[in-house]
Design goal:
By secondary structure, this protein is α/β, with parallel strands linked by helices. It has a single domain, classed as Rossmann fold (3-Layer(aba) Sandwich), CATH 3.40.50.720. 38% of the residues lie in helices and 13% in strands. It has a seven-stranded parallel sheet with strand order 3-2-1-4-5-6-7, sandwiched between helices. Helix 1 (41-52) crosses helix 7 (252-263), helix 3 packs parallel to helix 4 (130-158) and helix 4 (130-158) runs parallel beside helix 5. The longest helix has 29 residues, at 130-158. The structure holds beta-D-glucopyranose. Beta-D-glucopyranose (BGC) is lined by residues 120, 176-178, 220-221, 226-227, 230. Beta-D-glucopyranose is lined by residues 120, 176-178, 220-221, 226-227, 230.
Length: 291
């Protein structure tokens, strides 16, 4: 590479790039948020980010109670708001209903839903079982539908509360660059994220007249357990950087900041949008040279 030293492809075995602390400005003070799949990875980062910004946060998880409790502690330590962990399978309709019933009892209402829970079950297409297909669609897409349906009901029931926030509610769907980038060997996952993208836009159009905002964040390669094989060795990391024009892996804080902004009144006129937080992964990196 010319034009200065851009050899910033840091060694993946070193600690993550240090990001400045989450905003201490309490932009979300008084707001009640629920983050699904928040005991680890991107969901954990978002839950803590919303807490730092002053929101009261429900930390949803499906396994790993002590991890979820640690997220709750961090939120209460830094945000000063309220928080509790709630175990629930987002693909189970009754479970989801009960989770929101409890949130209304404990926090009074919901202002922000972050639909984050998601998983991968990869297989070559001809070997993919119906169970693998269904599991990924049920959690990644149907789970987002069930949670969004519950909050839309609550947002419409409660209406706007101008003293707290401009809109009558915000939904942030965590999608993936694979809502536009095809992904061989991961057909169930890519199909689920493509579904999330159109669910998000169609819902945004439907509920905008009620002043409900629905947006998506599509992360690229972010340093979490879900893709550890892609960054945990120097060889894998070097290969990954061929797909990332910005030449560093994403950190959960990169996603958390975008989520705090989308949840705040700073983005009040934005609905139906997808923000790609991906270091340029969707910029056809193969065309950096040639073409
Ligand atoms: C996947 C990761 C992958 C990234 C970029 C994400 O949606 O969950 O496993 O590294 O997309 O390909």
């Amino acid at each position: 590479m010319s034009d200065g030293d851009f050899s910033l492809m840091h060694d993946p075995t070193l600690p993550p790039v240090v990001m400045p602390a989450c905003p201490i400005e309490k932009k979300l003070k008084g707001q009640k948020a629920l983050v699904t799949g928040a005991s680890s990875g991107i969901g954990k980062g978002i839950a803590i980010g919303l807490g730092h910004a002053g929101a009261d946060v429900v930390v949803n998880y499906v396994s790993g109670t002590s991890d979820a409790e640690a997220v709750v502690e961090e939120i209460m330590r830094c945000g000063g708001g309220k928080s509790y962990a709630h175990r629930c399978d987002v693909s189970d309709e009754d479970d989801v209903r009960q989770m929101f019933d409890r949130m209304r009892r404990e926090f009074g209402t919901v202002d922000i839903l972050v639909n984050n829970a998601g998983l991968q079950q990869d297989a070559p297409f001809e070997e993919m079982t119906l169970a693998q297909w269904n599991k990924v669609i049920n959690v990644n897409l149907t789970g987002q539908f069930l949670c969004a349906r519950e909050v839309v009901r609550e947002f419409k029931r409660r209406g706007a509360q101008p003293a707290v926030t401009c809109s009558a509610g915000k939904i942030i769907c965590i999608s993936s660059v694979h809502d536009v980038i095809p992904w061989a060997g991961h057909v169930n996952y890519a199909a689920s994220k493509g579904g999330v993208a159109m669910m998000m836009k169609s819902l945004a159009q439907e509920v905008a007249p009620w002043r409900i905002r629905v947006n998506a964040i599509s992360p690229g390669a972010v340093r979490t357990p879900i893709n550890m094989q892609a960054w945990s060795t120097m060889e894998a990391y070097t290969e990954l950087m061929r797909l990332v024009p910005y030449k560093r892996i994403g950190e959960v804080d990169d996603i958390a900041r975008a989520a705090v902004w989308l949840a705040s009144d700073d983005s009040d006129y934005i609905t139906g949008a997808t923000i790609y937080v991906d270091g340029g992964m969707t910029l056809y990196p193969g065309f950096e040279t040639g073409g």
